[in-house]
Design brief:
heterodimer; A: alpha/beta; Rossmann fold; six-stranded mixed beta sheet; four-stranded antiparallel beta sheet; 10 strands; about 30% helix; B: mainly alpha; MetI-like fold; 2 domains; globular
Chain lengths: ~280, ~280
């Protein structure tokens, strides 16, 4: 707990506001609602085993929500239900209600949902293609017709990677360092202009300097993109998020503003976890 | 006590190192022995004529096996056209789509098919392709070899696809790619180097098959235009020439063996080089 909360990121102030290519399109009656995701009574099962129990959680728009909790508490499972990635695993069953901008995500076309809800994984997973093709992939898959070059550059700029790779766009993505690869994966996710970005422990394979870069990036992006991040790093949750949810054994124990949760937790289990008494 | 244990451990190490080393060395030396033997016996008969001329009638010396070289290539082309697509797609099914029981059945049958003696495959092709039209043909030979290509391709394709980390598939699907799109645009390209090598090995393996060709493609001492006539192939020529009572034919059989091995080695080497050049993207 040496460098606990640093307060504001030094870089956060000097970042110019981002210009979006297209505005996200909230639909339905929730247009003015600050909520992006509204999750009620969510149960998730792997075969006979239940991983998430009756979870209720709101994810507000243009904010960063952190999910913390010990390994196996269901936070990754929960994150992966938000873009229905858990459906790629056999025998998963989801009960309850997940609303994205007021729409049931299970009634949506899964491809459309994943275009709106992007994901960045624990380990950088660039495709064995060029840097350019990595970023263009989502656009191509979604049948984008138009000038790819501009969007690729825009996405790489948003992911703060453009300056480092602009002369090597045709090079293999594997030539990049781990941190660059992870930012490439973020650029790849941003290329389809998602409304939400899910980050599943995006920094766990990265060193502190690179981690700081990714967090800086999250600060820049949050006005245009709602984010939910799973992290094992409590300092990261404390410095990088607006809201924090603490999960334990598949249940949501506590959810409040990050500053409040880390200073005055209401549940003794939350306090025990954030002070390092278990987990 | 401790010293005795130490000596025992050290000598065991030495013994095992020697045993495994000798075994490894003999593996390599077998290949070089065969190659050296072929060059020794066949190198002398190898001339420009061997590659350009037809076999000479019995009693005359000289001549070549141009028809058998072309014949082997034609048979392999057919085998590739028939066997590789089926093998590739079945491998994709096993690695990407298959459930538990059905996959087990397919995998098991594939292994059994791989173990079926090649002469039996020949009989199968004979009764299926040769008997109905009542004559030997290139098509029948290619069909027999194609069947042999399938199980090898299936298993190697499956292995290489399974080696692709699941995180790549997730990455593509999280961007909205469908399952098939993910396989076609991310997984298969990532595994393409290995899959191509596997295919080439399968073809190299059947390039030397004699038994399935004996009563499908049969043989031919002349050119065989089209696909419906009997056709000469290097392995069958080797077989015929090696058991013939003429010294000149024996020399030619050695030369044919050398050419066959050389072609397989060349194809292997070419494939390796081509993959290495385009391979910097693939190596993680």
């Amino acid at each position: 707990m040496a460098s606990a909360t640093q307060g504001k990121h030094p870089a956060a102030e000097r970042i110019a506001p981002e210009v979006r290519m297209t505005e996200p399109t909230p639909t339905g009656s929730e247009k003015d609602s600050p909520l992006r995701f509204k999750i009620s009574n969510l149960d998730v099962f792997y075969g006979p085993k239940q991983a998430v129990f009756g979870l209720n959680l709101n994810i507000p728009k243009s904010k960063i929500t952190a999910l913390i909790g010990p390994s196996g508490c269901g936070k990754s499972t929960f994150l992966r239900t938000l873009n229905r990635m858990n459906e790629t695993i056999r025998n998963t069953r989801v009960e309850g209600e997940i609303l994205l901008d007021g729409q049931h995500i299970h009634g949506m076309d899964v491809v459309g949902l994943r275009r709106r809800v992007g994901m960045v994984f624990q380990r950088p997973n660039p495709f064995p293609k060029s840097i350019y093709e990595n970023v263009a992939y989502g656009l191509r898959v979604n049948g984008f017709k138009g000038r790819l070059d501009d969007l690729v550059e825009h996405s790489l700029r948003r992911a703060a990677l453009w300056e480092e790779v602009k002369d090597y766009l045709k090079k293999s993505a594997f030539a990049l360092s781990g941190g660059q690869q992870q930012r490439l994966c973020i650029a790849r996710a941003l290329a389809v202009d998602p409304e939400v970005l899910l980050l599943d422990e995006p920094c766990s394979a990265l060193d502190p300097v690179t981690t700081a870069k990714i967090e800086e990036l999250m600060f820049q992006l949050k006005d245009s993109c709602t984010m939910a991040i799973v992290t094992h790093n409590m300092q990261q949750a404390a410095r990088a998020s607006d809201f924090t949810a603490f999960m334990l054994d598949g249940k949501l124990i506590e959810h409040s503003e990050t500053s409040k949760l880390f200073t005055t937790p209401t549940d003794p289990r939350t306090e025990a976890y954030i002070t390092g008494r278990f987990g | 006590m401790n010293r005795a244990l130490l000596i025992w451990r050290k000598s065991l190490n030495v013994v095992m190192l020697t045993l495994t080393g000798v075994a490894a060395l003999s593996v390599v030396s077998v290949l070089f022995l065969i190659l050296g033997y072929l060059i020794w016996h066949g190198g002398a008969s190898l001339s420009w004529n061997f590659f350009t001329q037809l076999p000479k009638p019995v009693g005359e010396t000289g001549g070549g096996m141009a028809n058998a070289i072309v014949g082997s290539l034609k048979l392999l082309l057919l085998a590739a056209v028939i066997g590789l697509p089926v093998g590739l797609m079945a491998g994709v099914y096993l690695a990407e789509f298959g459930g538990q029981t059905f996959s087990f059945v397919i995998r098991y049958t594939t292994d059994l098919l791989n173990g079926v003696p090649s002469i039996v495959i020949g009989i199968f092709a004979y009764s299926l392709v040769v008997l109905p039209v009542k004559h030997f043909s290139t098509l029948a030979g290619g069909f027999a070899l194609g069947i042999m290509v399938i199980p090898i391709t299936v298993r190697s394709t499956e292995e290489f696809l399974r080696a692709i980390p699941g995180t790549l598939r997730e990455g593509a699907m999280a961007l909205g790619a469908s399952k098939w799109k993910t396989i076609a645009t991310v997984v298969l390209p990532a595994a393409s180097g290995g899959i191509l090598t596997g295919m080439l090995l399968a073809l190299a393996r059947v390039a030397g098959e004699t038994a399935p060709l004996l009563f499908t493609a049969f043989s031919n001492r002349f050119w065989s235009p089209g696909w419906s006539q009997p056709i000469a192939s290097l392995p069958v020529m080797i077989y015929t020439y090696a058991i013939a009572p003429y010294d000149d034919w024996h020399r030619q059989a050695w030369a044919a063996g050398l050419v066959l091995l050389g072609l397989v080695l060349l194809a292997n080497l070419g494939c390796r080089l081509a993959l290495n050049r385009g391979g910097n993207v693939r190596s993680v």
